[in-house]
């Protein structure tokens, strides 16, 4: 979306409120005051479970995602990737673990504070540049000057939109942790398998008694 066209000199509408970097601005102020900076951490969890019934496990997970105010990003027959509010992520994972036997588990935290802060500073600077271009546009007289200024405004607005998108994505990544849970259905041994299973335990007990 372009804020200005060649036919209009009206000031562009402000961007959405949720783009406002309250965390970053507070962090910058705390840094100036010599206080510890608020860090922005994104968390990613991977969990593999061995379950009796994959369909039942999947249904239970979907219900737990709703219970924990999350939403599904991607799903298939044997896994679900969801976004869970950061403050409820640990509780959700703990509940999911009760659905089967844990085979693999990992949790990764990524600090995006510096990158996020840089984007917010760039956004503020670009908004200031846009205001200066708008002031120039009001004073421009010749058509060529107006076209040149509007061309620069279009470029600046595009950069602003891209930064707003990055900032919003970062905010969402911090607010909602990514959790991928894969569920593998346990395979029951066939008739031959049960024979080997029984033989294994018979031999095991012989060694124990000896």
Q: In words, what does this structure look like?
A:
It contains 6 helices and 5 strands, in the order αβαββαβααβα. The chain has helices at 22-32, 54-67, 89-97, 113-139, 143-175, 191-209, and strands spanning 41-51, 71-75, 79-85, 101-111, 176-185. It is α+β, with helices and mostly antiparallel strands and 210 residues long. The longest helix is centred in the last third of the chain and has 33 residues, at 143-175. Helix 4 packs antiparallel against helix 5. The chain has a 5-stranded mixed beta sheet with strand order 2-3-5-1-4.
Low-confidence stretches: 1-22
Q: Helix segment count?
A: 6
Total beta-strand segments: 5
- The separation of the N and C termini measures 80 Å
Topology:
Blueprint: H1 22-32, E1 41-51, H2 54-67, E2 71-75, E3 79-85, H3 89-97, E4 101-111, H4 113-139, H5 143-175, E5 176-185, H6 191-209
Parallel strand pairs: 1-5
Antiparallel strand pairs: 1-4, 2-3, 3-5
Helix pairs in contact: 4-5
Précis, in short:
This protein has helices spanning 22-32, 54-67, 89-97, 113-139, 143-175, 191-209; strands spanning 41-51, 71-75, 79-85, 101-111, 176-185. It is of the alpha+beta class and 210 residues long.
Write out key terms for the chains shown.
Alpha-Beta Plaits, alpha+beta, disordered N terminus, 5-stranded mixed beta sheet, about 210 residues, elongated
